[in-house]
Amino acid sequence: MFIIGEKINGMFKNVSEAIATKNKLIIQELAKKQLDAGADALDVNVGPASAEPLADMEWLITTIREVTDKPIAVDTTKLAVMEKGLSLAGPGSILNSTSGQKEKLDILIPLAKKYNAKVIALTMTKSGVPANAEARLEIAANIVASAMEYGLEIENLFIDAIILPVNVAQDHAPAVLETIKQCKLICDPPPKTILGLSNVSQKTVDRPLVDRTFLVMALASGLDAAICNPLDKELMDSMITAELLLGKQLYCDSYLEAYRKK
Amino acid sequence: MEQAIEKWPGKIYELIIGATKETGGTRSKVVKIGGSNTLPFLFFEGENPNPPAIAMEVWDIEPTDWPDVLKNEYGSVLNDPTQWAKKCETLGADLICFRLKSAEPDGKNASSTEVAKTVKDVLSATSLPMLIIGCGNNEKDSSIIMDVSQAAKGENCLLGMATKENYKTFTAAAQSGGHSLIAETPLDINLEKQLNILITDMGFGSDRLVIHPSTGGLGYGFEYCYTIIERTRLAALSGDKMMSQPIITFVGQETWKTKECRADESEKPEWGPLKQRGILWELTTAAGYIQAGADVIVMNHPAVVKEVKNYIQKLIK
Question: Hey, is the C-beta of B234 within 8 angstroms of any chain A C-beta?
Answer without folding.
Answer: no
